[in-house]
Write a structure and sequence with these properties.
Layout lengths: L13 H18 L1 E5 H20 L1 H4 L8 H17 L3 H14 L8 E8 L6 E7 L17 H6 L3 H41 L1
Helix pairs in contact: 1-2, 1-5, 2-4, 2-5
């Protein structure tokens, strides 16, 4: 009976199993995508999501500079890093976790990874999976064709500087048009008088 025995053994001794999952989680955090068997992927996801949660909980503190943090906040960051280092023993992966991955999932409450089944491994036909981090939740820019009509008044409302510039341009165009109008009229009268003179000849 294996009651209350979490995790899988994978026919490995404890030290070997811990090193295996530590390396898999570190590879996932570093490369953001790994290919492994289904059993390893499911157990790696369990450990990886727990590790990412430790980093995400102190994401608001990490946004501050180190000298701006209170002693309590600094202690929370140190504790989170130590808890993450219990699973991930790679310093590069831990630094990427707290610098890049945790801010990306600041608004997500779990579900940081996904498993995609990709068939069987040649040779022993072991079921293989692709374990990867979820993509960013940042909203993408809407296409111009799908923009609502309500956006047009917002575009029309410009800043005072731009409105002043447009007013100055309009005034300059109006004055130049006024100056050009007498010249055009004089040119037209000259051409008309020349035509009359030719017709009289």
């Amino acid at each position: 009976m294996r009651h209350r025995r979490a995790g899988v053994h994978l026919s490995r001794p404890t030290a070997h199993r811990k090193a295996l999952f530590s390396n898999l989680v570190a590879a996932l955090l570093t490369n953001e995508r790994i290919q492994t068997t289904d059993a390893k992927a499911k157990e790696t996801r369990r450990l990886a999501e727990r590790t990412i949660t430790w980093a995400r909980r102190v994401g608001d503190i990490l946004s501050k500079k180190a000298d701006r943090r209170t002693p309590d906040e600094s202690a929370r960051v140190v504790h989170a890093v130590r808890m993450a280092r219990r699973v991930v023993r790679d310093r590069v992966a831990v630094s990427k976790l707290f610098d890049d991955i945790a801010p990306r999932f600041a608004a997500r409450r779990g579900g940081y990874t996904r498993i995609v089944k990709i068939g069987q491994r040649p040779g022993d036909a072991a079921p293989m999976s692709l374990l990867e981090l979820m993509p960013d939740d940042a909203p993408k820019a809407a296409p111009k064709a799908a923009a609502d009509k309500s956006d047009k008044p917002a575009k029309a409302a410009k800043s005072p500087k731009t409105s002043a510039k447009t007013a100055a341009k309009a005034e300059s165009q109006a004055t130049s048009a006024k100056e050009k109008a007498p010249k055009k009229a004089a040119a037209k009268s000259e051409t008309a008088s020349k035509k009359k003179a030719k017709s009289e000849e």
